[in-house]
């Protein structure tokens, strides 16, 4: 029998902090890790939790949205736990991935996440095509227009398309997309690194 861990995520000033903790303690969690963050990207305790988990353990959350920032992120988190041999229980949704019914629900979630990703990609391709049409002046453009750059940045940040896909949709070289994404990264380090054979001229 593995250990039962609780995980809670609250924003600064969240009134549900004690509610989550009480529910997790009542569920038998021997240890509870809490992320207090102003943005969903700040989750150091979740990373710490992954370091602590072992095969046979269980992670309990008050509600599924405490674990995942989006449907796709939730599915990724659950798949990571599954690979580690760790079960997930959600108290509000009464889901337990150690049971056949719980695993089925997560398979449905995974299908919905894939459907969502395809919709985002379809919308992004349409936006890129429109941006390409508005920015075309004849021949292959050497740089992206402001409109094209905005759509390219959105496509990359949303994870819907790769740099190769964006370049093909806009009809520009990969190096052009790499330069624009680097220029608009805002210094946050969230930018692609071109492969060694990518021309930088």
Fold and architecture overview:
The protein is of the alpha/beta class and 201 residues long. It folds into two domains: 4-98, Rossmann fold; 117-183, Arc Repressor Mutant, subunit A, CATH 1.10.10. 49% of the residues lie in helices and 11% in strands. It contains seven helices and five strands; from the N terminus they run βαβαβαββαααα. The chain has a five-stranded mixed sheet, with helices on both faces. Strand 1, helix 1 and strand 2 form a beta-alpha-beta unit. Helix 3 packs across helix 4 and helix 6 crosses helix 7 (174-183). The longest helix is centred in the middle third of the chain and has 36 residues, at 100-135. It is elongated.
In the CATH scheme, what's the topology name of the largest domain? Rossmann fold
Class by helix and strand content?
alpha/beta
- Largest sheet data: 5 strands, mixed
Beta-sheet strand percentage? 5-15%
What integer is the average pLDDT? 77
DSSP strand count: 5
**CATH A-level architecture of the largest domain:** 3-Layer(aba) Sandwich
Radius of gyration: 21 Å
- The level-1 CATH class of the largest domain: Alpha Beta
- What is the share of helical residues? 40-55%
- Could you give the order of strands across the largest sheet? 2-1-3-4-5
Calculate the terminal CA-CA distance, rounded to whole Å: 59 Å
For this structure, what is the CATH homologous superfamily of the largest domain? Resolvase, N-terminal catalytic domain
* SSE topology string: EHEHEHEEHHHH
Uncertain stretches of 5 or more adjacent residues: 137-141, 196-201
| Tally of helical runs | 7
Shape: elongated
Total separate domains: 2
């Amino acid at each position: 029998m593995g250990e039962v861990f609780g995980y809670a995520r609250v924003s600064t000033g969240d009134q549900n902090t004690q509610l989550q903790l009480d529910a997790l303690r009542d569920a038998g969690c021997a240890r509870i890790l809490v992320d207090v963050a102003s943005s969903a990207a700040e989750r150091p305790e979740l990373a710490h939790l992954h370091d602590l988990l072992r095969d046979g353990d269980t992670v309990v959350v008050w509600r599924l949205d405490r674990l995942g920032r989006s449907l796709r992120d939730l599915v990724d988190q659950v798949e990571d736990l599954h690979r580690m041999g760790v079960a997930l229980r959600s108290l509000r949704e009464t889901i337990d991935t150690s049971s056949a019914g719980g695993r089925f629900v997560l398979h449905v979630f995974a299908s919905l996440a894939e459907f969502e990703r395809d919709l985002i990609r379809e919308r992004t391709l349409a936006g890129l095509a429109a941006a390409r049409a508005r920015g075309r002046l004849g021949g292959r453009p050497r740089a992206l227009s402001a409109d094209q750059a905005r759509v390219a940045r959105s496509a990359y940040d949303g994870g819907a398309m790769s740099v190769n896909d964006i370049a093909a949709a806009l009809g520009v070289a990969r190096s052009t997309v790499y330069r624009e994404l680097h220029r608009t990264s805002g210094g946050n380090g969230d930018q692609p690194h071109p492969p060694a054979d990518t021309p930088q001229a």
